[in-house]
Amino acid sequence: MDGRAAFRYLALGDSYTIGTSVHADERWPKLLIDRLDGDGRIEYVAKRGWTTQDLIEGIETADPTGPYALVSLLIGVNDQYDGLGLPAFTRCFGRLLSQAVEYAGGDKQRVFAVSIPDYAYTPQGRGLKRTSEEIARFNEVASRIALRNGVAYLNVTPISQRGLTDPDLVAADGLHPSAKQYRLWTEKVLYSHVVKHL
Question: What's the whole-model pTM score?
Answer without folding.
Answer: 0.94
